[in-house]
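Quick start: read one record
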Amino acid sequence: MRYTINARLIYDATDGTLTLANSDAPGSQLSITASALLCFFLHNTSIVSRDEVLQKVWDDNGLTSSNSNLNQYLSMLRKTFRHYGIDNIIISVSRGHLQLNPDVHIQMPAPAPAPALEIPPQPTPAPEHAITEAIDTPQTHGLCWYLAGTGMLIIALLLVLLSMVSGSTLLPVALTPIHHSQCELLASDVMLHSVSETTYVKNFDAVLQRLNLKCKPGERFIFDYLDRLETNGLGRVFMAHCAMNENNPFSYCNNYFYYSWKP
């Protein structure tokens, strides 16, 4: 999801990059926590308390919150945006409250239009006396059951034919080796189409440090952003830490999800 700030700076919430509107390459990239903090204020433009910010950005995502951490990342955001000519992207309000600077113009992404609903034409109701006759006539009962059974049989046959025609073979996920100085690292081709390899390795190193994991011979990692939901700006991630042997390259794996970091 992209936000246009002051009509000249584009912030991409999926990878935390900041790009000038007239440039093709990002000028800088926010850390995961700094990006989460900025996203919180983009979605909460009114005055908020510091406790609410700490709860939503840190505590709710399993991170250790403190006023010193908040001050550090506020300073980081202000310094980064000052580089682009935007002073005090987040301002301090009296009594320990904060707010996205009201003088900063944020253009939110346009929501996708909802599909139009097609209302089928309503059939003209039959005269009341005709309905009464159909219900009261035994021959009509038999004809109705015959037509209903025939219709169900035709529908079942169509469903079988449709499943045979449209059935497709499930394909395995394609994994590509990524150059890393210490780890054997694999990424899905879908992942590499949505993010640069440099950003991918940088985020992998951050997660590896967060989990306090080390690279060892005979082990490999699979790292993926998956759907990258933007709750508080923190994307949902997946990492598998796998042992290898000659018969199975993924014989045993510890899997880590989101920010709970529990295998």
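The longest strand covers residues 219-224.
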